[in-house]
Amino acid sequence: MKEIESKEDIRFLVDTFYSKVVKSEIGFFFDDIAKINWAKHLPNMYDFWSTLLFGEVAYKGNPMAVHFPINEIVAMEKHHFDIWIKLWTTTVNENFEGEIANLAIYKANNIAQLMAYKMEMARRM
């Protein structure tokens, strides 16, 4: 296995991850609720992860803001984010190793915890 070193590695990781997501218990959020346009979403995710892992200023967006409307339709609960992080961690560990791979898992865990918390708080308001 190798380290995550390039935008091509990020593309592979993101594509592999989302191929698992759509087949999982949380796939309905993407296809049925958000009705994701994958041709637009995936390049956004490549930029998002390139920004987080390589410090590139590629992603311009607010990931939290796009999740609130979905959360209003169907609650995005902690167990959904647990599935998301398990799929992400498995995908990283199956394909990569090293410092950047560990950073990808660490950052994803932080994102999942923050998103779960904020979605819960939004539902209580």
Summarize the structure in words.
It contains six helices and no strands. Helix content is 75%, strand content 0%. By secondary structure, the protein is mostly helical. The model has no long low-confidence stretch (mean pLDDT 96). It has one domain (7-124): Orthogonal Bundle (Globin-like), CATH 1.10.490.
Instruction: Please report which band the strand proportion falls in: under 5%, 5-15%, 15-25%, 25-35%, 35-45% or over 45%.
Output: under 5%
Structural class: mainly alpha
From the spread of the alpha carbons, the general shape counts as globular
Secondary-structure element order, N to C:
HHHHHH
Uncertain runs with pLDDT below 50, 5 residues or more?
Answer: none
Tally the helices: 6
Brief account:
75% of the residues lie in helices and 0% in strands. The protein has 6 helices and no strands.
Give the topology.
Elements: H1 7-21, H2 27-33, H3 38-54, H4 63-73, H5 78-95, H6 99-124
Characteristic terms for this protein:
single chain, mainly alpha, Globin-like, 125 residues
